[in-house]
Amino acid sequence: MNQFLPKVLILSRGVWDDTDGTSSTLTNLFQEYDPNKLAQIYIETIAPNTKCCHKFFQISEFSLVHKLYKWRTKTGHAIDTNQENDKPLDSKIAKQEVATMNYVRGHRTIWFTIAREILWSFRGWKTKELKQFIKDFDPDVVWINGATEPFLCNLYYFVLQIAHTHSVVYMQDDNYSYQSKNLLYRLFKQYHRKTIKRVVDQCDRMFVISPKMKREYDEIFNKNSILLTKGIDIDKLSSSNLYVHKPVKMVYMGNIIYGRIYSLLAIADALKRLNSEETMVQLDIYTPNSISSDIKDYLLNIENVFIKPPVKYDEVQQIISEHDVVVFVESFEPKYCKVARLSFSTKITDYLSSGKCIFAVGPKDIAPIEYFLEEDAAIVASTQDEIQEKMFMLTDPSLIESYAVKARKCACNNHNKDKMVKMLYEELVSLNSK
Predict the structure, then answer these.
(1) Which pLDDT belongs to residue 242?
(2) β-pairing, 55-59 with 76-80?
(3) Can you tell me the mean pLDDT for 9-29?
(4) SS3 (DSSP) at 238
(5) Rounded distance between C-alpha atoms, residue 369 and residue 380, angstroms
(6) Handedness of CA 349, 320, 242, 28 (dihedral sign)
(7) How many Cα atoms occupy the beta-carbon half-sphere of 274 within 13 Å?
(8) The pTM is what?
(9) What is the helix (H) or strand (E) element at residue 77, kind and residue range?
(10) Degrees, nearest 5: CA angle 171-174-180
(11) Dihedral sign computed on CA atoms, order 70, 66, 47, 417
(12) Could you tell me which of 293, 312, 369, 289 has the C-alpha nearest to residue 108?
C-alpha cells in the first residue's frame, strides 16, 4: 500500500521521540509508513529522535519571547534528520525553554496560560520559513495531533489555510468541556472552545481515543468519529503468566499528577491493612514526577511500598514483566475527574499488551474505568470503599491469572495493531482519492 499512501503533515505540540512515552502513539501508528511521506511541525526546542519521519519544522516558544525585544530573532527552523549538519535552534535557548516549561508545568495557573496566549498573539511564529516549509512539503493530508491550547489551534488553522488540502484531527484529551466554575477560567474556555470548533469544522475526519469520547464528541461536533488507539502487536502478546510471586508483586508506572497520587495513597493504606499479619502483596511505584516530601515519607513508612527511580520508556515492558499485577489509577477528586473524564492513556494499551492482570482504581464514569468495566478487562475498584475489598482479591493467584487472560482477550479484540494501522492507512488513502 505504501506507493498509494498520501504525504501527511503532522501538527503537534511535542517533539517526535521514539524513546519517549508521550509520542509513542504516533510512533506506533506510523512505524510502517514511508518516512519520506511524513513531515512534522512542533513547538519544542528539542531535536527530533525518530526513524518514522525525517522532515520537521521546529517553532521555539522561548524565541518568541526574544523576538519581542530583538525582532531579528529566528523563531522557526526547518530540520532534515537525513542531513548530518542540520541542527536545531540555539542550544542556550533550548535549555532556557526546557527549564521554564518544566517550572510552568509544575505551577499550573490560569495566569501562565493567559500569558502564553498573549505571547503567541504577537504572531512572531508566522514566518516566511514556516510558509515555505508547508509549500515545499506540499502535503496531501494534514494530521492534527490533538486540539489543545488556543494558540495551538490558531497555529493549526493557519497551517490548514496555507496547505489548503484534506485534514484530520485526532482528539486524545477532553479540551472542550468546561472543567471549572471559576469565572476567569470559563471566559477563557469559551474562547478556547471556539478555536477548537473552528479547527474541527475544517477537518474531513475526526479520530477519537475512547468510546466515551466518541459518544459525546459525535453529538457535539456533528461528526461520525473513528475510534483510534495505540495498537498492540498481537504476535508478541504474552500467552500466559508462568507463575504468581509470593508476595504478589504490583507495579505502578506513570504520572502521579491530577490527583493520582491520592489514589496510590489509598492503595498503600489498603495494602498496610492487608499485610497486617502476613506479607501478601507489595507495591513498586515508578513515576517521572516529583513526590512531595511528606507524601514520600508517609509511603516509605508503609512496609512493602517502594518508590523507584524513573526509567526510560523502552524499559517499561521489561519491568512490568517482572511483576504480577499492573496498577492503573485515576483520582476521585471532582476537579481532577473532570480533567481525565474522556481521556484514554497510552498506559492502558501498554498494560493490556503486557499480558498481565490489571488493577484499576477510579470513578466509574471516567473513560478508562468505564472501559475496563465494560470489557471486564481489569479488577476494578470504582469507589474508595471498594479498594480494600478488591485488594484482597489480589491474594488469589488463580484470579490474577484469570484477569490476565481477560486483558489479553481485550487486547486482541479491540487493539490489534495490524487492524488499527490498516484501517488508519485506508482512511488516509480514501481522503487523498477524493
Answers:
(1) 64
(2) antiparallel
(3) 90
(4) coil
(5) 7
(6) positive
(7) 25
(8) 0.89
(9) strand 76-80
(10) 160
(11) negative
(12) 289
Give ranges for CATH 3.40.50.2000 in the chain.
2-231+416-432, 234-414
**Cβ-based burial of 399 (10 A; exposed 0-12, middle 13-18, buried ≥19):** middle
Pairwise CA distance, residues 9 & 347, whole Å: 26
pLDDT one-digit tens code per residue, 110-132: 888 888 899 999 988 999 999 99
Q: Which of 347, 215, 350, 130 is nearest to 362 (CA)?
A: 347
Cβ atoms of 98 and 60 within 8 Å: the answer is no
pLDDT at 23: 84
d(CA 346, CA 330): 14
**In three state form, how does the secondary structure of 295-316 look?**
HHHHHHCCCCEEEECCCCHHHH
C-alpha cell at 199: 479547527
Residue 91: pLDDT over 70: no
What is the CB neighbour count within 10 angstroms for residue 36?
12
Residues with Cβ within 8 Å of residue 318, at least 6 apart in sequence: none
- For residue 121 the three cell numbers come to 498573539
pLDDT at residue number 304: 92
Please report which confidence band the pLDDT of residue 146 belongs to, taking 50, 70 and 90 as the band edges.
confident
Distance CA 77, CA 65 (A): 16
- Give the Cα separation of 429 and 423 in Å (integer): 10
Domain 234-414: which CATH number of 3.40.1010.10, 3.40.50.2000, 3.40.50.720, 3.40.50.620: 3.40.50.2000
Q: Is the pLDDT of residue 85 over 60?
A: no
Grid coordinates belonging to 280: 501478601
Is residue 105's pLDDT more than 80? no
- Looking at residue 57, its amino acid is F
Q: How many other C-beta atoms are found inside a 10 Å radius of the C-beta of residue 136?
A: 11
- Angstrom distances, CA of residue 229 to CA of 209, 301, 419: 5, 38, 11
Residue keyed to cell 502478546: 237
Return the C-alpha cell found at 299. 509511603
Name the residue type at position 74. K
Is CATH 3.40.50.2000 correct for 2-231+416-432? yes
